[in-house]
Amino acid sequence: MAKRKQQHADGADSDTDAASDRSLVDVDFDFFDPRPDVDYLALKRLAGQLFQADAEALHVHDLADLVLAQPLVGTTVKCDGIDSDPYAVLTVLNMHVHQDRPAIKALAQYALAKSAPDAAFHGALQNLLGPAGLASQNYVGLVFSERLINMPVQIMPHMYRMLAAEIQLAIDDNEPYRFTHLLVFSRVYKLTAEEEAELQGPAPRTKRQKHAVPTQPSPGRVYPFHPEDEHIQKLALHSLDYTFTRAQPREEGGVGLDTGGRMMLIPAARLPELVSTLLDAYPAPS
């Protein structure tokens, strides 16, 4: 049974009059608990999309199993009914309770390795995910959030709202979800100076600007795949962008995006604030 249904109007330019005529397609997004019998392969694919070239070493099959083993915490989004593949997922896993599972063990080591260039971030993670940290009661929640690229960001406020409510219900039932911190993995991409210029397009020039040296875009600027990262970063104690360990160097002039990963560590107590911020930033289409 669906948790909630949301409609989204998707616009497409008309071939005859793209400037003034837009056709609207109503898409129903249904929110479901993770389904062990139908969602495994799709969740594994989403985890592979999130971690890209590093996915195999991070045991994403085990990550999918863990998500499906706690169906009352976490949400998937589907468009074609309960038995269809999920297009998005958001959930949280206790990295202390599951510290001996292959996926969590690998992700803890991965987070520590990737945070090494940032001494403050690395120190914080060492205190939380190192041997002493894992023996403490400072539970870290691993936030697994990923979606297909054409899914609108407007689904995320509701997914985070449901996650916060489910965490509270689990705490009320004495389940181990009383997190002190949330560790969020996400994805980013970089553009070259030429790609930046192409994205911006030619700027109009005044007579005064005619003989001026044109402003060059900054190469290597980082963009998030997920717009909500901007709001998560504002609440984060630490945030770091990193390169994938097994990524192949991008050839000059090659096609595709130069992608990387992002880690953000936020106090779990700020989750309600994040929910409120996202609801304000990304309201459902009217």
Automatic annotation (TrEMBL):
Family: Belongs to the BCP1 family.
Stretches of the chain forming a coiled coil according to its record: none
GO terms for biological process, alphabetical: protein transport
Keywords (A to Z) from UniProt: Nucleus, Protein transport, Transport
Chain positions covered by the region annotation Disordered: 199-219
Superkingdom of this protein's organism: Eukaryota
Localization per Swiss-Prot or TrEMBL: Nucleus
Role noted for this protein: Involved in nuclear export, actin cytoskeleton organization and vesicular transport.
Protein name per the record: Protein BCP1
GO cellular component labels: nucleus
